[in-house]
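Open question from group meeting: does this chain pack into something compact, or does most of it stay loose? Before anyone orders reagents, we agreed to write out a predicted structure and look at it together. Recording both the input and the output here so the notebook holds the full record.
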Amino acid sequence: MAADPLPERTRTILAEITDMLVSVVGDELLVGEITWATTFNDDLALESIEFVALAELLQQRYGTSVDFLGLLAEKDIDQILAMTVGELAAHIDRVTAVDPACAG
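Structure tokens returned:
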């Protein structure tokens, strides 16, 4: 069995995002395991209202520094459509590493 290449902190963030996604869309609508490479558009088919709900959960968990909607606003439509759960986890990891108040 190959070792997980993700640091423990990043795996924790990915697991927390997964839990939030289940809360937003329901586990019956999620097809397969959510991984680093899972896309919000093609794999999860998130709708705009679900993005907003996810953004609210992220803000409750990590604080205002993790601005998911702001992150989306910085991207063009093709980047948004291709965005992965891993990209969001990496963003959260960066932001919370800079601002420890967000981490917990």
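Observations to bring back to the group:
The CA atoms of residues 73 and 89 lie 17 Å apart.
The chain has a mean pLDDT of 86.
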